[in-house]
Fold:
Amino acid sequence: MDHAADAHRTDLMTITRHVLNEQTKHPESRGDFTILLSHIVLGCKFVCTSVNKAGLAKLLGLAGEKNVQGEDQKKLDVLSNEVFVKALISSGQTCILVSEEDEEAIFVDPALRGKYCVVFDPLDGSSNIDCGVSIGTIFGIYMVKDKNEVTINDVLQSGKNMLAAGYCMYGSSCTLVLSTGSGVNGFTLDPSLGEFILTHPNIKIPKKGKIYSVNEGNAKNWDGPTAKFVEKCKFPEDGCSPKSLRYIGSMVADIHRTLLYGGIFLYPADKKSPDGKLRVLYEVFPMSFLMEQAGGQAFTGKQRALDLVPTNIHQRSPIFLGSYDDVEELKALYAAEERNA
Ligand code: AFP
Structure:
């Protein structure tokens, strides 16, 4: 019997145990973050279960449609939003919530307020639900200075002020990837235990990758540097092999692959959408935070993504993120264009 392997199998590092271990590095902390995270984890487990049985439970389809009992059906993204909003408020640790699903920010009732702001997309990639492609929840966490005097500016901060960020991917397995600012760790849900177990400790993105990931259908509207970069991926000038193209169209799944295998994910500006498509607060920032924590880079075409300061909660930005060297190559093309302008 391999006792070492057996000890490893039976010494389960759950996400809560991991965060409590991290907490011991901050003697001043009182466990508030651990409580908040356990409520986020609960939301992820609920959404995971709902995604898995969506077809059976007839959760698919448009919000407002009636099911066979004549009851109003909630679309999965609407349901997921409700679950996260309620889980976050009931944690007693939040003061402002910004969700992709809600036009306005939610200011938590003062009696239930804590010191954290959570920005999130409860079910990103929802156009993929009906065909069973991986989708996910994305979240970022800020802390307010004074929970009794919160304003919208507490969330309109640059991404580098985030305390933590993560995503949960609902795919062939349910994987939660988290950074609290000291590296990136991945946890997989063990459905029999109902616990997320550390399966991907200290994720580091390869320095250079062999994959590029972009919606090439938009190519006719790209700017010069993006078009040149993608051309170089296909027809490298340095004798290297061309890169492979992989694009799922579900940011969580595309970023998860990029983190693990390396490469670059691009959602550039184009002539039709000068600000790109992806939202700064709950798509660009959390993924950029994770990418930097894993040793990669995130760039908007003009600046480091985490240096952006959004002026509205649903603002969009172009984004390029992935392996350090690949993003560096793209940055050089933008710099060259600026020099020649
Ligand atoms: P949906 O939530 O509408 O499916 O959009 C998904 C998404 O916000 C992000 O997850 C993808 O990376 C991106 O949009 C895909 O956009 P395109 O369909 O324009 O390629």
In short: The mean pLDDT is 91. The first strand starts at residue 94 and ends at 99. The longest helix spans residues 32-52.
